[in-house]
Amino acid sequence: MSLLPTSAHLFGLTFAGIYVGSLYVSQYGRLVFSSSSTSPKREEGEKDKGRVPPQYQKGRDDPTVIRARLTAASFATFACLFLACAIVAHVTHGSVTTDSLNASIKDASSLLGLSFPPLHLSSLFPHLVIPTLFLGPLTAVLINYLPSITLDSTKFEFSFFLPSLFPNDDDDNNNGSLSSLIVLRNYIVAPITEELVFRSCILSIYLLAFPSSSSSLTPTKIILLSPLHFGLAHLHHAWETYNRFGRTKTALKRAVLQSTFQMAYTTLFGALCAFLWLRGIPDTTTNSNLDTTPSTPPTTRTYTVYPSRLPSVYAPITAHIFCNFMGFPDFSGDVERGQKRWGVAGAWLVRLAYLSGVARFGLAVWTQEGRAGW
């Protein structure tokens, strides 16, 4: 038994709707902005003219909003996992009985990519694919940590490496407690819950539709289509941008441009994580001496894209945390920093690192030789 692709698309939208919708269920998780008529205007020429001042808004970085949304996202993730497990159990085992409950849970766990990877070196390689792409920014970081060749060797500049870890907003309430909440959201709760929902739950449903004889799904389509749910789930940030900047035509234009870029970036990132999830970990039971010819084959044998591989959510989680930590690569800025620290040699070293990282990443993703070992 398998799902139709249309059903997989609908379930994907359902999971995305549950996750994003949960952020707005509680009144404490909703954003609040004063109207432009009651908000004081900034002085002429002041930065971000027309933007609603922080004291007249309750944005996504407000402590109350963060706490409410962390709680909501956690509950929504558990709900999505429960629903996904129920769908997997129904499709793979039909009506679940007491006798088949353990088998259903085991198969659902494997199909959702929740099984722990085996303890050998090949399980580590998937976690290094995304950092390889960031070889250029990482080289700039290394140069920044090492002594300068031309300037004061005791002067180190750490601020550009951790811009989002220690936020510096205009809000006077931005204290250590708020910074801790932002760190908890950006590097722990958000990456884990988003990967569990948008990779484990959604991709597992697509795998249920993949083996169908009437299905037009291919591995490439699964990798490219499933991240659209992830990209669309970030469009709700446009509402905050539009309100923060005064609900004007300029604010609308800013919101559209930022949201379009964010959707494109998150969709591309989602495709990479989908590939990592599907590529997963080695199936160490493939060569087992156990009899694997029952009337109903195990889920991990039937619903898979890559032979001898099991889905795994752990590499996408580490990739998500890493990308949130590093931010979007700033090529010109990194080259400038390399030149500032080590002169022309530093600038060229950063350029070569960028080129090498992209090339090595391409080999690891697109060629069979590059994927050897993982």
UniProtKB/TrEMBL annotation:
Membrane topology: Multi-pass membrane protein
Keywords on record: Endoplasmic reticulum, Hydrolase, Membrane, Protease, Transmembrane, Transmembrane helix
Catalytic activity: Hydrolyzes the peptide bond -P2-(S-farnesyl or geranylgeranyl)C-P1'-P2'-P3'-COOH where P1' and P2' are amino acids with aliphatic sidechains and P3' is any C-terminal residue
Chain intervals with Basic and acidic residues compositional bias: 40-51
Compartments, as annotated in UniProt: Endoplasmic reticulum membrane
Membrane-traversing stretches: 6-25, 70-91, 124-146, 255-278
Enzyme category, top tier: hydrolase
Any one GO molecular function term: metalloendopeptidase activity
EC number: 3.4.26.1
Superkingdom: Eukaryota
GO biological process: CAAX-box protein processing
Family, similarity comment: Belongs to the peptidase U48 family.
Family matches, as PANTHER family: CAAX PRENYL PROTEASE 2, PROTEASE U48 CAAX PRENYL PROTEASE RCE1
Protein name: intramembrane prenyl-peptidase Rce1
Species this chain originates from: Dendrothele bispora (strain CBS 962.96)
Lineage per the UniProt record: Eukaryota, Fungi, Dikarya, Basidiomycota, Agaricomycotina
